[in-house]
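[User]
Protein folding is very new to me. Any chance you could explain this protein sequence and its structure tokens? I have pasted everything here:
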Amino acid sequence: MSEALPTGIGRPATRALTAAGLTTLAAVAQRSERELLALHGVGPRAVQLLRAALAAQGLGLRPG
């Protein structure tokens, strides 16, 4: 599963995730919500959209 990041998360969040090496949903699933929110440009709305995209693929964020 190497689904691309959802486009609806916004450009700042996409740039932040890409800069952190998180270019696929599978990579995002290896991080916790706290880790994602610590990235400049990733806010609660982006995390909510990422959670929904992950759930659609049978994935979820790491606990913590």
In short: Residues 30 and 62 are 6 Å apart (CA to CA).
